[in-house]
């Protein structure tokens, strides 16, 4: 990584920039900073990991609203992507540090306020992610059969708040609005053979519902064109190779694109070339045979912008979607979709909106930009609030992959370390950390869940999964989790 905003950063894998006088600061045992992190997803754990690694006295407490940790790694990563979840092993090592504690089942802002945390800790890092979704803002959005992709992903991944979703899978055609990796995840889950899904950690209830699904066709709809899709080549390849399915691509969407992509960055070039090949070239004998035998299909529709969800005769259920046909102004990443005046309707009974996640304000006293959905900050330092920091999606917006969040969180942790070294964070003022928070929670009848408690839940899930031939059977009811650990 190069320099940014006049700040010297580090190259991945190389030693961190040295902080002058930092060793002197670390030599005084009395100056042990108490730091808390709000949120136990990738941003929270990477922030904690960096602080613990580069300050040998720092004590870090991680707070989580749910009894169970790991955020989007547990509840967002697709069940058929177990390799992405291996990062949990690293987070577990961090949680096992004798200078790190995990406290689940605590809602910040309700069970304990940010102000109370600030009184208990030298630094508070907000890493609570994006727990809402962007809305379409069109008529019919609230009809039965229309769901956010975020809720649908939460449903099949066991997020407690989505466990009762009961999506309507009784129609043959589903439409996913959006062309990012999450959109491809939900399409893949809808169309995957049961013998594949049954070996993942998808929840028991959602697997049973998908087993009865009538969905045979999934359209992924985007406002712009093939050169602007947000999914990556790995996810596209997975869709192309998904057993029992065939792709539906309109050759007209891809004609001439081979010449256009010559000068674009390599990842975009390779992705576009794969789509062009899929749309324009005759498949090999093996692939043609597989497509001919397929019972399900998926396709990409470009330059379509949703106008209205169309109601069925009962006025309650979605029966289709009306879309504006668009044209592009400009080129590349900055191209804008402009309506042509032409309108198109598509019959479907399931509509999943995958147009992005959104962070929410945690506390009215914390600065928040509702338009961008982030906490205004400078390198993770919350504007106008010394001692308060942020990392992850609530810092930069809901973009990027886990490694993006890792680097982002390391940046915020480094800002905390610099502020410790410079004296911006006053260590002469003794803070009690969780000791003072514990008494607040006790007075309010709140029982925190520790990491060893989580490991009991984890062991129970793995044992249940073993009986079903799965890696784990997730417990989706927080009350059942708490009963399991006798809370």
In short:
The protein is of the alpha/beta class.
Walkthrough of the structure:
By secondary structure, the chain is α/β, with parallel strands linked by helices. 34% of the residues lie in helices and 18% in strands. The strands form 5 sheets. A 6-stranded parallel β-sheet has the order 6-14-7-8-10-9. Strands 3-2-1-4-18 form a 5-stranded parallel β-sheet, sandwiched between helices. A hairpin with a 6-residue loop joins strand 12 (318-329) and strand 13. Helix 2 crosses helix 15 (402-422) and helix 7 runs parallel beside helix 10.
Largest sheet: 6 strands, parallel
Overall outline: globular
Overall structural class, as computed from helix and strand content, comes to alpha/beta
Mean pLDDT: 92
Widest β-sheet, arrangement of strands:
6-14-7-8-10-9
Radius of gyration (Å): 24 Å
Number of separate strands = 18
Q: How many helix segments?
A: 18
Beta-strand residue fraction: 15-25%
Query: What is the subunit organization of this protein?
Result: single chain
Terminus-to-terminus distance: 46 Å
Helix content: 25-40%
| Low-pLDDT ranges | 1-29
Characteristic terms for this protein:
487 residues; alpha/beta; five-stranded parallel sheet; 18 strands
Topology:
Elements: H1 22-26, E1 34-38, H2 42-54, E2 59-63, H3 71-75, H4 87-95, E3 100-103, H5 114-120, E4 123-126, E5 132-133, E6 146-148, H6 149-157, E7 173-177, H7 181-191, H8 194-197, H9 204-211, E8 217-221, H10 233-240, E9 245-248, H11 257-260, H12 266-280, H13 285-293, E10 296-301, E11 304-311, E12 318-329, E13 336-347, E14 350-353, E15 357-358, E16 377-378, E17 381-382, E18 388-390, H14 393-396, H15 402-422, H16 434-443, H17 451-467, H18 478-484
Parallel strand pairs: 1-2, 1-4, 2-3, 4-18, 6-14, 7-8, 7-14, 8-10, 9-10
Antiparallel strand pairs: 5-15, 11-12, 12-13, 16-17
Helix pairs in contact: 2-15, 6-7, 7-10
């Amino acid at each position: 990584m190069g320099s940014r905003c006049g700040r010297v950063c580090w190259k991945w894998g190389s030693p961190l920039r040295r902080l002058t006088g930092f060793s002197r600061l670390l030599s005084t045992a009395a100056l042990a900073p108490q730091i808390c992190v709000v949120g136990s997803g990738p941003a929270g754990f990477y922030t904690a990991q960096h602080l613990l690694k580069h300050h040998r006295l720092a004590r870090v407490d991680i707070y989580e609203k749910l009894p169970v940790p790991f955020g989007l790694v547990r509840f967002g990563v697709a069940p058929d992507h177990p390799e992405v979840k291996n990062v949990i092993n690293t987070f577990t090592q961090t949680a096992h540090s004798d200078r790190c504690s995990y406290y689940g089942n605590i809602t910040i802002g309700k069970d304990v306020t940010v102000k109370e945390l600030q009184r208990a800790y030298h630094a508070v890092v907000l890493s609570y992610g994006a727990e809402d979704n962007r809305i379409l803002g069109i008529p019919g959005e609230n009809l039965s059969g229309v769901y956010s992709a975020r809720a649908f992903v939460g449903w099949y991944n066991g997020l407690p708040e989505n466990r009762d979703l009961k999506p309507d899978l009784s129609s043959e055609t589903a439409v996913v609005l959006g062309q990012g990796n999450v959109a491809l995840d939900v399409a893949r889950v809808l169309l995957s053979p049961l013998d594949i899904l049954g070996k993942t950690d998808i929840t028991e209830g959602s697997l049973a519902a998908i087993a009865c699904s009538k969905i045979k066709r999934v359209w992924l709809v985007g406002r712009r064109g093939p050169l602007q899709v947000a999914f990556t080549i790995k996810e596209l390849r997975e869709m192309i190779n998904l057993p029992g399915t065939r792709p539906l691509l309109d050759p007209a969407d891809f004609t001439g694109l081979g010449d256009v992509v010559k000068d674009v960055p390599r990842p975009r070039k390779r992705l576009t070339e794969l789509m062009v090949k899929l749309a324009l070239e005759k498949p090999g004998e093996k692939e043609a045979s597989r497509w001919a035998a397929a019972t399900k299909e998926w396709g990409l529709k470009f330059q379509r912008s949703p106008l209205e969800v169309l109601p069925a005769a009962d006025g309650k259920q979605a029966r289709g979607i009306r879309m504006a046909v668009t044209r592009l102004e400009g080129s590349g990443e900055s191209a804008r979709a402009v309506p042509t005046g032409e309108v198109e309707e598509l019959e479907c009974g399931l509509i999943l909106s995958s147009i992005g996640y959104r962070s929410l304000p945690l506390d009215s006293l914390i600065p928040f930009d509702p338009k961008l959905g982030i906490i205004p900050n400078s390198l993770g330092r919350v504007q106008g609030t010394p001692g308060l920091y942020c990392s992850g999606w609530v810092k930069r917006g809901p973009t990027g992959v886990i490694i993006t969040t890792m680097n982002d969180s390391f940046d915020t942790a480094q800002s905390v370390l610099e502020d410790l070294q410079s004296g911006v964070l006053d260590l002469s003022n003794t803070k009690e950390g969780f000791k003072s928070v514990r008494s607040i929670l006790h007075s309010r009848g709140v029982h925190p869940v520790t990491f060893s408690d989580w490991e009991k839940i984890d062991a129970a899930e793995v044992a249940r999964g073993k009986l079903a031939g799965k890696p784990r059977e997730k417990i989706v009811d927080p009350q059942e989790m708490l009963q399991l650990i006798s809370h």
